[in-house]
Amino acid sequence: MAVPKRKISKARRDKRRASNIKMTAPNIVECPKCKAANVPHRECAECGYYHGRDAKQA
Description:
This protein is an alpha+beta fold. The chain has a domain at 26-58. Helix content is 16%, strand content 14%. The chain is built from 1 helix and 4 strands; from the N terminus they run H-E-E-E-E. It is rod-shaped, with a radius of gyration of 22 Å. The mean pLDDT is 88. InterPro entries: Ribosomal_bL32 (IPR002677), Ribosomal_bL32_bact (IPR044957), Ribosomal_zn-bd (IPR011332).
């Protein structure tokens, strides 16, 4: 019977398993101020609005 000569490290094992994980696309929400498509919990790329205030840095 075949027996491994050395222990497979956790990093090597996990790298092999990582290719089987299916990634999902991030949710898209509507900006309440300008109605542009936006990723949740991020400031709006169009108007800079986030969490009730203008968050755009100058």
